[in-house]
Amino acid sequence: MTDTKEASERLVRDFLGSWQARSLENICSGFADDAVYHNVPVAPIEGIAGIRAVFQAFLDAFADAKLDILSLAAAPGLVLVERIDYFTMNDGRKVVLPVTGVFEVKNGKIARFSDYFDLADFEAQSGMKL
């Protein structure tokens, strides 16, 4: 399978859009089994089982999530996304977080997902510790 610019972009747009429906299966469906997820201020998570656990923890903490794409640049196997993530915590608090994500795509799956953001800002708004 060729990871064209168009296929890579579609995979990432589908992943980012899947958060609103809150289905862990859909959210994780685009990831390779040996994928790496790295919230860059903290240690990377290797493998789909660990990624599923982190995404489930986010779903458990947030009543709503919307990942809004501001700009996106794609090349075969690589997608860069500047976005604003909007989360509503279960207690009603709102989190508005500027994020830049880097996605590496291999064989039609997300192989590496790195998010760059201000950890202190996220933790202050959400009350969570990553």
UniProtKB/TrEMBL annotation:
SUPFAM superfamilies assigned to the protein according to its UniProt record, in alphabetical order: NTF2-like (SSF54427)
Pfam families per the UniProt record, alphabetical: LEH (PF07858)
Q: Which InterPro entries match?
A: LEH, NTF2-like_dom_sf
Q: Which molecular-function annotations from GO does this UniProt entry contain?
A: hydrolase activity
Q: Which protein is depicted? A: Limonene-1,2-epoxide hydrolase
Give yes or no: UniProt keyword Hydrolase: yes
Give the transmembrane ranges: none
Q: Does the keyword Membrane apply?
A: no
Keywords associated with the record: Hydrolase
**Domain named Limonene-1,2-epoxide hydrolase: which ranges?**
9-122
